[in-house]
Amino acid sequence: MPLLEGDQPLFLHANRQKEIEAALDWAGRQQFDRVIMVAGPDLQYVATRLAADAIPVILNGVYQMPTRRWEPYDMAYAAAAELHRAGVLFAIGDGGGGFSATNARNLPFHAGSSAAFGLPADAALKSVTLWPAQILGIDDQLGSLAAGKRASLIITNGDPLEPMTQIQRVWIDGQEYDLQRDKQRRLYQRYRARIQAGQND
Predict the structure, then answer these.
(1) CA proximity to 46, closest of 15, 74, 72, 77
(2) In the chain, how many domains are there?
C-alpha cells in the first residue's frame, strides 16, 4: 500500500539500455508517483529521458568493462559525468545485495574515478553524500552538514575521494567513533613495526 499510495518509491532494477527503457515504459503505464532507476553504465544512454521525466537513478558498475565493441574503454567511468551533464539526479552505488554490502567502503573511490573521467569534483562528492539522501527522501536528516541534521561526519587529511587519504576522526549521530575499534586498523598497527623492520634490512 505505501508503494501504491506514493509514500514509498519503486526501485526499478535493470542493466542494459533496452531493459532500462522497457522498465521505464512499464512504470509509466502503471503511473507510479515515485520511481528510482537502479542500473549500470547504460543509464547514460537514456540520460535525456531520465532528466526529462525527473527520474533519479542509482548508478552501479563504475568499474565495469565495456561489453560492446563500439564502446570506448572508459564508458563506465564516464557514465556519471554524462548523467550529470544531462541534469539527472544520481547516486553512485555499490551494486546492492547482501554479498556486495562490504563494497560500500569503495564508494568514495568509485566517485573519485568518475571525477577523473569528467564528473566535477563537487558533484562527485555529492553523489555519495547529499544526492543519495535526496533520492531516498531523507536529506532532512543526512547528506550534508546543517543545523538539525544527524551529526554524522568525518575529518580527513586530504580529499575524501582519494585512496591515499586517511580518516582522522569519525562521528556517527553526534557520537565520536573510536577508530581503534576497527579490526583492520588494529592488525595494521600490530604488524607495522615488522614491515618497517623488513624494509630497513
Answers:
(1) 15
(2) 1
Q: How far is 152 from 142, CA to CA, in rounded Å? A: 8
Residue 3 in domain = no
Q: What per-residue confidence (pLDDT) applies to 101?
A: 65
Spans in the chain with pLDDT lower than 50 = none
Are the C-beta atoms of residues 171 and 142 closer than 8 Å to each other? no
**Beta strands at 90-92 and 10-13: parallel, antiparallel or unpaired:** unpaired
CA dist., res. 88 & res. 86, Å (int): 6
Per-residue pLDDT of 67-98, as tens digits, reads 888 989 899 999 999 999 999 999 999 876 55
For residue 160, give the C-alpha cell.
575524501
- Which strands form 167-172's sheet, in the order they lie side by side? 153-156, 167-172, 175-177
The dihedral region occupied by 160, where left means phi > 0, alpha psi between -120 and 50, and beta the remainder, is: alpha
Give the residue numbers spanning the domain of 179.
10-200
Cell representation of residue 69: 565493441
Residue 2 falls within a domain, yes or no?
no
